[in-house]
Amino acid sequence: MKPVVALVGRPNVGKSTLFNRITRARNALVDDFPGVTRDRHYADAVWNDVGFTVVDTGGFLLADDDSFAVEIREHVELAIIEADIIVFVLDGRTGISPFDRDLADRLRRSLKPVFYIVNKIENKRQEHDILEFYHLGIEKFYPVSAEHGLGMASFLDDLVNGFPESEPESDRENSDEICIAVAGRPNVGKSSLINRLFGEKRVVVSEKPGTTRDSIDLVVEHNGTRFRLIDTAGIRRKGKVKEKIEKFSILKSLKSLDNCDVALILIDADDGITDQDITIAGYAHDRGCGALFLLNKWDLLSSEKKDQKEYIKELKIKAKFLSYAPALTISALTGLRTHKILNMVESIYEEFSYRINTGLLNRIIGDAIFRSEPSLHKGKRLRFYYATQVSVRPPTIVCFVNYPEAVHFSYKRYLVNQIREMAELGKTPIRLYFRERTGKIDFSSRAVTKGWYVEKKEKKTVKRKKERKEQSRRKRFRDNKSIDKGKI
After folding, report:
1. Alpha-carbon dihedral of residues 469, 471, 477, 481, nearest 10 degrees?
2. Does the pLDDT value for residue 175 go beyond 50?
């Protein structure tokens, strides 16, 4: 296992900026006002060829002025418990606060190695003003500027030298994993579902909308398969988004949909299916990931409303573009049917990664064309020469035709549905593109009506055959002429 380094400190001392600096990425949201980070955020880092895991935490407060203070404090405590080394981040501009003293006392009781960083030190004058931090009983601290990278090299050198000896990573840690993004409107139960699937309280949960601001990655194993769960911020309508930090949160949520294999689209069953739910489903559809609708808070519905078939039927009507996506009614709070989610995700991912045999694919398309031929284009027949699957996740197919722009979207949808039905890919998106035939290879169109395709000879080969036939004809002509003259 890699050593775990936890960054702790009071709000707005620069922990997330330091996190981004160490991991050499911009995974953690950063802003000037305190309280941006609420959950634990994990990422891997490397320094001097030594790998380790960094944990960003929320600002530690003993007072309950913030409505999330208790939840954040619990997560900081958990981060301290699981860490091998703790990095206590202090603010060099504002000096020592009572919260710094409280946290310093807490870290001494943990009996774990602690590195003290005084952040936001950017000039010589500030270095003379940081002597007050010795009042915390610190023997050594590192003046750094996480924003500009000043002083980071010496700190990281000492940090990696202080790591305990660790066992080499197992092959399981390097194996493939299924990436799942949990998306939905604010306060539909995304974080509660993440905690339920993870098996413990891992992210902050509150009835207040907008609790989750950053995208949080978690890894869980189920039946020998690794799943990476991404808890995303709630996506509201554009007109209601005012704060800059919320805009960044939504952008990270959409980026998570870009990178995931399967999106869990949470809908509050008690509120019904809203236009924003369908909009979020459209985001998943546009990004080509697999999708699973989860109708959460099913336990809150009255007996009159608990008509599962009608509810799912309404969902399929409103989200026709995701007609292939399965739907489950669940309760993240009570655990109702949540045990089925990962099994369903695994089934979706299997189809999401499926590759159709080229021969079978061409037979499917040929049979579909035989049953329903495409309309004429400017009086000319639209010909399908050849089809092949070029990639997976999702299955992506390219058809070579004589007029790609002439394929109507309704006929494209018909072909996709035929592929979905005949290849038994009922739970995954399928991308179908049309390209004009290029190159020197010609494909027969006679076989389209029979449901299969025969590749003709290359033009060069045909030309050579014609030349040999012409040479043979000329030779026979010369021989016959010689016979007439009595030379043979």
Report:
1. -160
2. no
Position 99 scores a pLDDT of 83
Q: CA geometry: angle at 282 spanning 365 and 436, to 5°?
A: 35
Q: Which residues contact 474 (CB under 8 A, 6 or more apart)?
A: none
Q: Which residues of 396-409 are buried (b: 16+ CB within 10 A; e: fewer)?
A: bbebbbeeeebbee
d(CA 90, CA 391): 49
Q: Angle of helix 275-286 relative to helix 244-259, nearest 10 degrees? A: 50
Between CA 89 and CA 138 the distance in angstroms is: 13
Give domain 172-352's CATH superfamily: P-loop containing nucleotide triphosphate hydrolases (3.40.50.300)
**Helix spans in 225-319 (H):** 244-259, 275-286, 308-318
This model's pTM is above 0.70: no
- Is the distance from CB of 43 to CB of 53 less than 8 angstroms? yes
Determine the straight-line distance between the first and last CA of the chain, rounded to whole angstroms.
91
Contact 231, 253 (CB under 8 A): no
For domain 358-456, the CATH class is: alpha beta
Domain ranges of the chain: 4-161, 172-352, 358-456
Q: Is 372 a residue whose pLDDT tops 50? A: yes
Q: Do domains 4-161 and 172-352 have the same CATH topology?
A: yes
